[in-house]
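Suppose a colleague, Dr. K., hands you the sequence of a protein chain of 247 amino acids and asks what its three-dimensional shape might be. Before reaching for any lab equipment, you can write down a predicted structure in token form. Begin with the sequence itself:
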Amino acid sequence: SAILPYIDQAPAYNKLTQVASSQHGFAAGSGNSASGYNTENAVLNNFYVPVYKCPSSVADAFYTETSPISNNGTTSPNAALGKETGMTMDYVGISGSYSGVAPYNTKCGSLIYGGYWCNSGLMLIGESARIRDCRDGTSNTMIIGEDSGLVANKDYRSNYYGGWSGHLGLSGWGTGVNTIRYNPNPPTAPAGGDQTYTPNNPLTSEHVGGIHALLADGAVRFISNNIDIETLRRLGMKNDNLVLGEF
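The predicted structure, expressed as tokens, is then:
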């Protein structure tokens, strides 16, 4: 939500209420509807931002799959249409990388819904990172990844809750960030990446052969589905001090 004024959406940003508490900032999940898409932040009901939607994506901007929790925390005005209130964005922040061995298992949380959250990257949960923290170099660190495609014809995009701001009850699965663990566009959903809210959802797209990624230097790169997984994981970390190699 913080970049809305810079993408010609200042009127919407000025209507937002950023709720600060020990439990959540912007919280769209069940039990937190007052600070989600209702009441204080009602401007986000059915709010569509074109730049958050990949033109090639076949996934609906307003999530239509069956999910255990409504993304607006209460009965959606779109319920009759089988759709949710909040826009599901096609891009996710990269919080870090995980593989189970050093250095990828450092700065990581315990098993969560079959996966792991890590804060070794640039887009973090509940904290910020600066350019000076990107010691691997801004050209060698991914900050945003594309998550606009389907996996085995199912919608597992990480941004089900919208990723506007904050998090739900100190949980990572309401934030719109992703910890890299797998190659892009796998044929089936892997462990920790098989729900709308799991932490290791693979980066996906409808583009042939790969996904787009934004690096910290502002460059947009096309990442092949066949990229060496170690290279991809190193891209997701800001100060691993490892040689990246070609990609």
